[in-house]
Amino acid sequence: DGRVCPQDQDWFKATVPSMQGLKASLVNYNAGAGLLRLCVFQADGATLLGCSNDAAPSVTVPATSLTSSQVLVRVVGDTDRVANAYTLSLEYLP
After folding, report:
1. Phi, psi (5° rounding) for residue 44?
2. Using one digit for the tens of pLDDT, what is the confidence trace for 68-86?
């Protein structure tokens, strides 16, 4: 569980099992209280694998797109003024 405050961002590090992909989602999240953006990066923190700022944000990364077993997940407000709570869900995909 997490909470983004204005001008804040949360980063999470995850290890994806070998030969699997990843689906990252925000759950227990009320987009009406402030839209959040969910992004997944390679372990370098610079190579973007996908982003979503939908009302139910979700990013799916196939195993073929991963260059290492480590990924970074960032949750940030869609604007500098957003504050909202969420639960980050990670699902590993065959």
Report:
1. -70, -10
2. 999 999 999 999 999 999 9
